[in-house]
Amino acid sequence: MNKPIILVVEDDAPVRNLITVTLKSNAYKFITANNGESAIMQASSHNPDVVFLDLGLPDMDGIEVIKKIRSWSNMPIIVISARSEDNDKIEALDAGADDYLTKPFSVEELLARLRVVSRRLAVMQSGNQSSVFTNGSLSIDYAAGCAYKDGVELHLTPMEYKLLCLLAQNIGKVLTHTFITGKVWGSSMENDIASLRVFMATLRKKIEAGSDVQYIQTHIGIGYRMLKVE
Ligand code: CA
C-alpha cells in the first residue's frame, strides 16, 4: 500500500507544524486545514486516507466536522483534543471518530496512532468480504458462529462471542461503553456498563490466555479496542 494522504485540521500553528514536520520526516503526504469549513471541503475534494482533527476549531465544533464527514465517508478520523475531559473524547468517538490524541502529545504517540489506523485502513481496503476473520492466531468463522485460537475452538458464551464479533468488525477503532452496550444489549444503563467490564474480562482471559499478545486494549473510562496483531 502507498503511504496514505493525511488531512491535518488544526488552527494552532505550532501544533499543526509539529504534526506536518513529523509526517514529512516520515515520508507521509499531507494536506492541511485551519478551520472546520475548510476541513470539510478538503475532505470532500481530496478524499484523504486519514484525518487528524482538532476538536476546538475557530468556526465550528470538531464534532460537527466528524458528523459531516461521516455522512459520506468512513475515512479514519483521529481526534486531537486539548480538553482532557473524557466526555469530549467519548462524544467524538460516538460521532464516528476512530481514535484520539490528547494535547500535549509526543511525536512517537502520533506515529503510533497513525500506524494503528493505517492497519485498519488496509483491512477496509482489502474489502473484508470474507466470512472468516483472522487476526494473529485468533479467528472467527461468522457463518459457523465459532471463534478459534491457534485453530482450537474457544468456548465462549453467546455474550462473549457477540462482543468479540463487534470488536473484530471494528478492528483498530476505539468503541465506547455506550456504543458497545447499545449494540449488545440495546441499552446503556449504568449496570450494563458494569456487566460489560465483567464480560470483557472473561473474554480477554479466554483469547489472551497463555500468550503475551494483547488483542483487546482497555481505554479506562472510555471503552475498548481490538488491536491488529501482526
Ligand atoms: Ca484549536
SSE map:
Blueprint: E1 5-9, H1 13-25, E2 29-33, H2 36-46, E3 50-54, H3 62-70, E4 77-81, H4 86-94, E5 99-102, H5 107-125, E6 132-135, E7 138-141, E8 146-149, E9 152-153, H6 158-169, E10 175-176, H7 177-184, H8 190-208, E11 216-219, E12 223-226
Parallel strand pairs: 1-2, 1-3, 3-4, 4-5
Antiparallel strand pairs: 6-7, 7-8, 8-9, 10-12, 11-12
The protein binds calcium ion (CA).
Residues 11-12, 54, 56-57 line the site of calcium ion (CA).
Describe what you observe in this structure.
Helices cover 43% and strands 21% of the residues. It has 230 residues and is an alpha/beta fold. The chain has two domains: 122 residues, Response regulator (Rossmann fold), CATH 3.40.50; 95 residues, Arc Repressor Mutant, subunit A. The strands form three sheets. It has a five-stranded parallel sheet, with helices on both faces. A four-stranded antiparallel sheet has the order 6-7-8-9, with helices on one face. Strands 10-12-11 form a three-stranded antiparallel sheet. A hairpin with a 3-residue loop joins strand 11 and strand 12. Helix 2 runs parallel beside helix 3 and helix 6 crosses helix 8. The relative contact order is 0.11. Calcium ion (CA) binds next to loops.
